[in-house]
Structures are given as C-alpha cells and as structure tokens.
Amino acid sequence: MKDNVIRTKSFAFALRIVKLYQFLQFEKKEFILSKQLLRCGTAIGAMVREAEQAESKSDFIHKLAIAQKEANETEYWIELLYQSGYLDKPQYESVFSDITEIRKLLTSIIKTSKLNKEN
Question: How many CA atoms lie within 13 A of 33 on its CB side?
Fold first, then answer.
C-alpha cells in the first residue's frame, strides 16, 4: 500500500503540537495561546483522517479545505507565540517549517483533486 504522506506528516505534526503545548503550559506558564494552538494544530490531522472516509470527491476536497484553514490558523498562533516571546527563533523556525510543508501539501492535494474532479 502506498504511503500516505499527508496522513503521516499531519499526525507527526499533531504529536509535536501536543508536546509544544505541554512545554508552553509547564515551562512558560502560558495557558491561552497554547490552547488555541493545540486545538487547531491537532485538527489538521483529524480532518485529513476524516477526508479518507469522504462520501464523495467534493466531500474529500471540502474536508481537506477545512484542514488547510486549520493549518493557516496554526501558522498564525505559531507566529504570535514567537513574536510575543514564548518561542525562541530556533523553536519557531522548526515548527513553522513543518506547518509550511503541510500547508503546501494540502494545497497541492486540493488543486489536484479539483482538476481530477473536473475531468
């Protein structure tokens, strides 16, 4: 069976976000922004999993579009945590690189799916 890259990467990212959330809560004593990050950062993988069981090609695209929106929101919270001093530059660059890769994958899958739907 072919490896599902977005499934693997979104799950690994969700796990990373859980660990980052724990770090922010226990080490930095940050409780509000980190909870927002946890919610949207883990929702990406959940929507990817939902898309696997889509009822139609349109449903598949819709679920991945929601995952893409969650990825955009995750990016926002990461930037805010960095700009407010909760993340240092290496932490920020590492996690930002991961979310950027996931966003690009989602964009590519959605575009390809839309093209295949029309043909």
Answer: 20
